[in-house]
Amino acid sequence: MNIYFIFPLIFMLHELEEIAFMPGWVAKVKANKNNWLTEMIPEISAKNFTLMVLEEYILLLIITLLCWWTKNLDFYFAVILAYNLHILFHIGQAIIFKGYIPGLFLGIVSLGLVSWLIWLTVDYVSWDKIFVFLPPAIIIIVVNLFSIHKWIHL
After folding, report:
1. Mean pLDDT (whole number) for 55-82
2. How far apart are CA 103 and CA 116, in angstroms?
3. Which of 15, 54, 87, 128 could form a disulfide with 107 if both were Cys (CB 3.0 to 4.6 A apart)?
4. Cβ contacts of residue 112 below 8 Å, gap of 6+?
5. How many whole angstroms separate alpha carbon 68 and alpha carbon 120?
6. Is the pLDDT of residue 154 over 70?
């Protein structure tokens, strides 16, 4: 099996941890009104959060299939690096909140696995192209996240 099809599996492991624990964690954090950061976290039902994850996964599968079909490993690496930045963001959140953040444990595991995948295939990519593709990949992901958050809270 190649990197195109391993990454979506690793991604979903992290997302399943978030699905399992995010709604309860948000409710618990929102109940503790001592932290100004809690105001920035939107309330979300388990159903809506799961729908958001499903939409993200479908988008990832579409990107995966397009990159696989066109043999565009450079753009795919940019997407994977954007995912790794997302995991580093979770680690930062855990430090700020001084505790567990849903997705943290499997995010750290996936960060290691994805880094290993990158190491295995690093000879097949152009880092110059990856760094050109990285900003658009991040923009696609961020715009998608804001869009689905807005859609869910309509």
Report:
1. 96
2. 19
3. 87
4. none
5. 17
6. no
> What size, in residues, is the chain?
154
The token pair that represents 103 in the structure block:
């997705």
- The token pair at 146 is 């804001």
The backbone region for 146, taken as left when phi is positive above 0, alpha when psi lies in -120 to 50, beta otherwise, is alpha
**Complete DSSP assignment for the chain:** --HHHHHHHHHHHHHHHHHHHHHHHHHHHHH-TT-GGGGGSPP--HHHHHHHHHHHHHHHHHHHHHHHHHT-HHHHHHHHHHHHHHHHHHHHHHHHHTS--TTHHHHHHHHHHHHHHHHHHGGGS-HHHHHHHHHHHHHHHHHHHHHHHHHHT-
- The Cα–Cα gap between 94 and 129 comes to 32
The two tokens of residue 74 are 């450079």
79-106 pLDDT tens trace = 999 999 999 999 998 998 888 999 999 9
* Residue 31: other Cβ atoms inside 10 A: 8
Locate tokens 């979506």: which residue? 8
Which pair of tokens denotes residue 72? 């565009």
